[in-house]
Structures are given as C-alpha cells and as structure tokens.
Amino acid sequence: MDSRSPELRSERLVLDRYTPSDEEDFVALFMDERVSRFMGDGPEPEESVRALFRRVFSKVYDTGAFDVWAVRENGFLVGHAEIKPTEVSGGHELIYALAHRAWGRGLGTELARTITAYGFDVLGLDAVHATVAAENTASLAVMGKIGFKHMRDKDNDDGTVTRVLTLAKADAHWHRP
What we know:
It is built from 5 helices and 8 strands.
C-alpha cells in the first residue's frame, strides 16, 4: 500500500497527514470523553494518547500499514479518520472521530462518504465496513444515511454490543463510479 495517505477533500473538509504540530489537538480530541467514550475501550490516559500519536508516524506512515488522516475544517483539526483491515469486520473498516464542536452539522456524513468513496475508488474495495457501539445512535444514524446495513452484533466482554455494518460498493447509490 502507498505509505502516503493521499490528501482527500470534500465540500468542507480536508483530510491530510498529521504533522508533529498536530499533537496537542490530537490529544485534546482523544481525551474528550464525549468523543472517546465509544472508541475502543473508551478514554485513555494522556500518556497513552501521546504514544498513539507517535505510532501514527512510526507504525503507520513509516510502514504504509494503512491510511490515517487528520481531518481539518478551515485549517483547524476537527477530527481523525482511518480505513484499515480489521478482524472484527472481516474487511476494511472505516474509523472516524469528530471533535464535539464539529457535531450536528453533517460533517460526519460528509467525512464517512469521503473515506468510503476512497475505499471503493482508490483501494478497489467491493465493500467497506464499520463497527459502531450499539448505544452510539448518532454514528448509527450517519452510517444508515450513507447506506450501511446492519450485518450482525458482536457481544463485548464488558456487556456492551458492537454493531457490524457493511456498505457494498454496488449499494452506494450516492457513489460516483
């Protein structure tokens, strides 16, 4: 895979590579419990978030492992986005997070469409997957708006449920082939 995570643009967003100067904004994004409560195992200690930021460079960009982007609106970091293979979904999964100040304006839908189209057009995927916490109704609504279908549930050790969703390229009616 190309190690460059190419710049992507949507109507209001620019997805580009993180730079070292993004660290404080990255930490603020991932430390905000409103954002991180549905990510992985939830909020992480600051030291872990800073280590994650460093791994974006050493384990992802330097090796070309998968695509990771800083999400910017008007030049300011407002989110994080990835598309990568995962065992839970059995294929390439769309992952994104938006800062609380970016919620409620349709940016999640715009971002998810942009990454999904990249998966279809650039990576050549026939389907893109997403895993969303069952109680994360806002993200489930975004995925439904784009056309993702609920495929199955995964029970987690902590008693929560993760929904596994899929959008086949053939079903992406908004997609421009």
